[in-house]
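User: quick one, sequence for these tokens?
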């Protein structure tokens, strides 16, 4: 429950700070038991947008300036001096981080592209399915907020409908490679050539994407994991969704190299 509450707190802060600049709208992970999908990747076309961009969504920066979406199309460069967070010190990072200006730009650009400020998506394996991660918050009566957590209900209401869904990018056995492969897309909901994350973002148009693909798979290097994760993150950003990454509790691979790689992603 504590882990779920922390995630809700992060979404609350993100929604509060980011939507303030836009149009008004208001159990530790364990290795998955499922067999690893094939490590097949293919170049796929970009997801087709079937929803018109929000006409009134004018991107506004932290200081009140209007953001030129065209000039901000490329992700802002990573600035370690701005965050003061070293990847090597990931164990000491705050559970709920400060939101950088880069996140604001991604969010505002997403609204201009037609993302839904009330939607988030999950990208992950069996540790991210709705029965494990957040699903209860779409089920009134199945969760209880303590007196000091009542303020989180605003966030639960804001993202209603996103908690109790698996979406197209969540499935037991998924890893960073399979999310990028059209072989693992649901043919009943996805278009020809789409991979799971392309399909999910096209259908759900999220403003946030929770990415949890950190379970260790035998035979895969940390470098390959990082390569695939960067592709997932960049695709999310390119489509206006703010990525939220998580570390894992185990150290099956040794030296916490997966968590270090996750903390190093920018």
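Assistant:
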């Amino acid at each position: 429950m504590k882990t779920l509450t922390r995630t809700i707190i992060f979404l609350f802060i993100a929604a509060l700070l980011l939507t303030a600049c836009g149009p008004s709208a208001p159990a530790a992970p364990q290795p998955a038991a499922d067999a690893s999908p094939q490590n097949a990747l293919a170049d796929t076309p970009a997801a087709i947008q079937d929803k018109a961009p929000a006409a009134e969504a004018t991107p506004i920066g932290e200081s009140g300036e209007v953001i030129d979406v065209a000039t901000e199309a490329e992700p802002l460069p990573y600035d370690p001096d701005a965050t003061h967070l070293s990847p090597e010190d990931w164990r000491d990072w705050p559970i709920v981080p400060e939101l950088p200006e880069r996140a604001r730009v991604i969010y505002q650009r997403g609204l201009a592209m037609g993302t839904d400020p009330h939607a988030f998506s999950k990208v992950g394996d069996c540790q991210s399915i709705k029965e494990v991660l957040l699903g209860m918050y779409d089920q009134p009566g199945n969760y209880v907020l303590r007196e000091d957590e009542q303020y989180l209900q605003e966030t639960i209401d804001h993202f209603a409908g996103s908690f109790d869904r698996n979406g197209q990018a969540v499935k037991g056995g998924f890893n960073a490679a399979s999310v990028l492969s059209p072989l693992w897309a649901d043919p009943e909901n996805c278009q020809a050539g789409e991979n799971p994350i392309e399909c999910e973002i096209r259908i759900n148009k999220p403003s946030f994407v929770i990415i949890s693909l950190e379970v260790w798979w035998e035979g895969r290097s940390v470098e390959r994991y990082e390569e695939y994760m960067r592709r997932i993150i960049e695709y999310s950003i390119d489509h206006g969704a703010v990525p939220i990454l998580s570390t894992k509790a185990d150290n099956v691979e040794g030296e916490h190299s997966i968590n270090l790689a996750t903390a190093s992603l920018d």
